[in-house]
Amino acid sequence: MKSVLVCYESQYGYSQKYAQWIAKELGGRALPVSQAGEEDVRKADLVVVGGGLYAGKVGGASFVKRHEAVLKGKLAALFTVGLSPTDKEEVFSPLMEKNFAPHILASTKVFHLRGGMDYQKLKWMHRMMMKMLVHMLRKKAPSERTRDDQGLLDSYGKAEDFSDPASVAPLVAYVKSLR
């Protein structure tokens, strides 16, 4: 039986929640990237890394870059967590390409999981960024807004949680297939 380590970067708890669900399903352990060191990666047979999507950045990407040599042959999957479904390849692919080297993406399966947002708990900078984004979206004609745009406008100022333990099933099945 191969050992699995799930490393995550989480600012508001959604990525942590998913990492813990994934680790539980795989019989592995979950560690924040700030606590996961090279020795933890070396000891694991398979590693899953993930984090939230914030302003074009993927949480956990710097961990993958920092530990790239020791992750070679062990990086089983990447996961992202965001408010929007991000099921559009034309949006999701450039984001991943911006954050990960081509050889990492070519050899690693990526999964997107839907998280949430509680506007009252956002850090000041994130709250300001959301306010500017909403302002720009409101200027768009309703007919020009995407489903994601409208979803963001509808949830602005509220607490939304779309996380679902069942949504880790495809990722878990994929990693189990590597064992």
TrEMBL record:
Pfam families in alphabetical order: Flavodoxin_5 (PF12724)
Gene3D superfamilies, A to Z: 3.40.50.360
Ranges of residues in domain Flavodoxin: 5-140
Protein known as: Flavodoxin domain-containing protein
Organism: Solibaculum intestinale
